[in-house]
Structure formats: structure tokens, C-alpha cells
Amino acid sequence: MILLLLENITFQNPEAFILLLLVPILGAWYFMRRGQRFVNFKFSSLRALDGINSWRGRLRGMLPILRALAFCSLVVAIARPQEVLKEQEITAEGIDIVLVMDLSSSMLAQDFKPDRLEVSKRVASEFVDKREYDRIGLAVFAGEAFTQCPLTTDHKVLKEFLANLDCGILRDGTAIGDGLATAVNRLKESEAKSKTVILLTDGDNNAGYVNPLMASEIAREFNVKVYTIGVGSRGKAPAPVSRAADGRYIFGMATVKIDEELLMKISEETGGRYFRATNAQSLEQIYAEIDRQEKTKIEITTIKRYSEEFYRFAFLGIIFLLLELFLRYTILRTIP
User: Fold this and answer.
1) Backbone angles phi, psi at 107, to 5 degrees
2) CA R_g for the chain
3) Exposed/middle/buried for 206, CB within 10 Å: 0-12, 13-18, 19+?
4) Spatial CA neighbour of 291 closest among 95, 117, 106
5) Model confidence over 234-263: pLDDT tens digits?
6) How far is the C-alpha of 178 from the C-alpha of 209, rounded, in Å?
7) Does residue 35 have a pLDDT over 60?
8) Residue 145 has what pLDDT?
9) Cα separation, 140 vs 69, whole angstroms
10) Coil, strand, or helix at residue 298?
11) Structural contact between residues 181 and 218, judged by C-beta atoms closer than 8 angstroms
């Protein structure tokens, strides 16, 4: 109980704890003199008393413990415990970030374990954890695009959307231009000092209505910086090549095709960078690099307030003391 009360507690008079040294001293003195507190009776034999061990006798041994607890609680009260209540005032030059995730069927390719999509979701979620004070949104695309989560500081909700992403919820294809345009549309009205898009894909543009280079020009007009990430190993990888009648994907070896030239142009046009991730480790390093480049200036002022908590321990000490006195002079009373 006392340990729970001490959580988030500081002490104004910690020197009072020196008094606790009296506890072992008085305890030793008590046990040394316990034989002098009782009247002696002489018996020719103690055989008749064998096995006698009343509950009152056992409980009476608890009385010194209650008195010691009362003393310790009162010492804590004298030390003047105070609960620390902190307030933070945060001034941040915020960054608005939209993650753009490819959900085409090729993201189920198994050159990443278990597949490209699951690794991309995990690494993106870890990136979100590092951006505590930024607003982050999520857009997805395949043969079409839409906003999965608008810009928000509620990163728990955002991560739930990330975790629930799956291939097949959109018409298949790779509409890079539509995905980028959707993200820019979310950022164009933003008043943040820095606006950033992180676009992740594993293919080349083969669907959609917006030309990717046109989308990058629009991003530049709205001062949106675009980082592009090409995901996939080099050569061939086990990937979906067709779909069965029941909806299951049929896997086979397929050549990894990423339009790196297009992704480079998009990033260069907007002042960002292009990265190639060939495995989970390199993808983690890419997000770490983006995290280092897109830093937020944060000023934190901490204000401390205190509330006096000594009365809790004083009350607890009085309870222990009254309980000890009540038991000593009523239920556990000895004669003489």
C-alpha cells in the first residue's frame, strides 16, 4: 500500500528518514526484553501444555509490527511527501506528412518476408512512432487511389489503418500519378512549414488518370517535397501471376519491374530523393534516413506543480496506531 502511495512522490524534508534507523534498534531492544514483561510460573512438568498455541497468542505477535508500521508512516508524513504534477508547453515547427502506399497485387511478392506489403506496413508504423509531434496522413493506390486516413496527430488511429491495409481492396494496377495527386490534394491547404510525401511502390505506372510527372509538378507548386521508394529485389521474385476462381492468388516467378527513372524524376522535381529497397533492412534504413532529413524544431517548457500528500501517510499512521492500541487493550489484552 505504501509503495503505491509513493508513486510520483518527492519529499520536501528527506532528512526525516533518518528516524527510520530507530526501527531496527527498538526492534532489537523489544526482543531482548520480552522475557521481562511476563510473570514467571514454575511447573514440575510442561507436558500438559504441549500443543497449546491459541490464536490470541499468535495475533499478539503482530502488535509490535503494527506499532512499527505506524511509526514508519508518521516518519514519511514528517518528510512531507509531495506529488509532482507536470505540464508541458510544446512549440513545434510542424511537418505534415502523407504516406502513399502501393496496394497492387505485386506487393504480395515474397522476396520480402512474409511479403513486401507486410514489411512496408511494419516499417511505416515504426516511422510513425518516431514522429510524435507531426501530423501524418495515409493515401493508398493500385489501379485507383483514395485517402485512407486524413492528416492527424492521433497516430494510434493511423497505425490501425496501416495495419488493416490489404491488396485487393482496389482495382488492380499501379496508378502512381493518382496516388501522388491524392496526397498533394490533402497537403495543398496545409499551413505547416514543411509538407512531405513518402510514396512507396514496387512497379511502373500503368493505370490511373493523372500523369505522374504532372502530379509532381502540382506537388512542386504547392511546395510539397516527395520522397519516392522503389520496393523489390533485383531480378526475379515469387509474385502473384494470376488469380484462381475463388480469389486466391497463384504465385510464380516474375521479373521485378520498377520505373526507377520515373521515381527519380518525381523526387528531383520536388526537392526530395529516390531510394531503392531490396530487402527489409534497406527499407528500414531508408525510413531512418528520411526521419533524419525531415526533422522538426521543438521547444518544450516543463512546468511542475506540487500537491501536498503528507496527510495520507499521517492518516495511515494513526490508523495503525489506533488498531494496535485497540487490539492490545481489548481482544489481545493480557493479565496482568
Assistant:
1) -70, -10
2) 35
3) middle
4) 95
5) 899 999 988 888 878 899 999 999 999 999
6) 7
7) no
8) 96
9) 62
10) strand
11) yes
1 confidence band (pLDDT: 50, 70, 90): very low
Q: Say which residue the cell 521479373 belongs to.
A: 255
**Is the separation of the CB atoms in 97 and 196 below 8 Å?**
yes
Question: Per DSSP, what are the bridge partners of residue 145?
Answer: 141
Residue with cell 508518521: 74
- Helix (H) or strand (E) segment spanning residue 307: strand 298-308
Q: DSSP characters for 195-262?
A: EEEEEEESS---S-SS-HHHHHHHHHHTTEEEEEEEE--SSEEEEEEEE-TTSPEEEEEEE----HHH
Q: Residue 275 carries which side chain, given as an amino acid letter? A: F
For domain 94-296, give its CATH number from 3.40.50.410, 3.90.1640.10, 3.40.50.300, 1.10.1040.10.
3.40.50.410
CA atoms of 232 and 229, how far apart (whole Å): 10
Q: Where are the domains of the chain?
A: 2-33+55-83+307-329, 94-296
Asked if residue 166 has pLDDT above 60, the reply is: yes
Cα distance between residue 190 and residue 186, in whole Å? 8
Q: What is the pLDDT of residue 335?
A: 54
Q: To 5 degrees, how large is the angle CA 98–CA 103–CA 108?
A: 130
Residues 65-87: pLDDT tens digits? Answer: 888 888 888 888 888 888 776 66
For residue range 261-288, list pLDDT tens digits in order.
999 999 999 999 999 999 999 999 999 9
Amino acid identity at 214: M
Alpha-carbon gap, residue 286 to 247, rounded angstroms: 34
User: Could you identify the residue written with the cell 509474385?
Assistant: 239
What are residue 135's phi and psi, to 5 degrees? Answer: -85, 130
Whether the CB-CB separation of 258 and 174 falls below 8 Å is answered with no
Question: In the chain, which residue ranges form alpha helices assigned H by DSSP?
Answer: 2-5, 22-33, 55-60, 63-78, 116-130, 155-163, 176-187, 212-221, 260-270, 280-293, 310-329
